[in-house]
């Protein structure tokens, strides 16, 4: 049971006791607010079969669980793989999780998940072990094992997407902290009394450095009467203004859009300086959809990181973009299974 040292066998379904630690496959499932992406993955980190569903979008736990189960069973059927060849299911979930306890603490993207025992609920329904963790943590494991972080002993994976957070690798192991919630970097306050964050506090990094923050700043400028293309490009229903829309306006020379992206990147870089100062990693991998914006976001991020890091540490860390891209959620979830069973 060495690979499952975090769990107490007496509190787990019986099938957790049947691990052989050498099965060739894992199923990785990445649960998002609007999409569940699943894949059958081998130990080389290759996705052999895929399944995607949106049936659960913004639904209650029972609906989401049924959608996850459907993804699992469809993968088994389509792949022709025997369940006995699958080590476990790795499950990445958005929001605060206590992975070692198998509990979702809270999720802002999906309602009604407070302290929900998702790991054991799913394991009982599927009849196979399930490893649960925060999606960013699993992305860190994926990039460390199969992507840009290979060979790094101490690294951070920063997601710069709808939200902002970090997965931490220390001495080649995922660090999750006392209650499993280490890495909630996006909710560190850097602007006292600043804009309201989705968590209820004010002035968090995520009020600026993420898709939610970019949209907030865009509407702030529109409502202030700024001369910007974003006024006509914004969704008519008042929904979030995406990073893609702001980037398109910036590429057309819109000064307001350029400044929004500069500010998002800059605050993201301030957060990276905290990572350097506190964790002293050799590598930071930055991933997520906003990375695709390119220099408009990336350059001010690096400028801010350097400005807010003490000079003695400037050359202590490399910052690189992710390698696994949109497959990272699936691969990372499977990678956690393999990492736990070695």
Architecture blueprint of SSEs:
Elements: E1 25-31, E2 36-42, E3 47-53, H1 61-79, E4 86-93, E5 96-98, E6 103-106, H2 118-126, E7 130-134, H3 135-146, E8 155-160, E9 164-170, E10 173-175, H4 211-223, H5 230-233, H6 243-251, H7 255-279, E11 283-287, H8 295-307, E12 318-321, H9 328-340
Helix pairs in contact: 1-2, 3-9, 4-7, 6-7, 7-8
Description:
It is a single chain. With 342 residues, this protein is α/β, with parallel strands linked by helices. The chain folds into 2 domains: 160 residues, ATPase, nucleotide binding domain (Nucleotidyltransferase, domain 5, 2-Layer Sandwich), CATH 3.30.420.40; 168 residues, 2-Layer Sandwich (Nucleotidyltransferase, domain 5), CATH 3.30.420.40. It is 34% helix and 19% strand. The strands form 3 sheets. Strands 3-2-1-4-7 form a 5-stranded mixed sheet. Strands 10-9-8-11-12 form a 5-stranded mixed sheet, with helices on both faces. A hairpin with a 4-residue loop joins strand 1 and strand 2. Helix 1 crosses helix 2 and helix 4 packs antiparallel against helix 7. It is globular. The termini are close together.
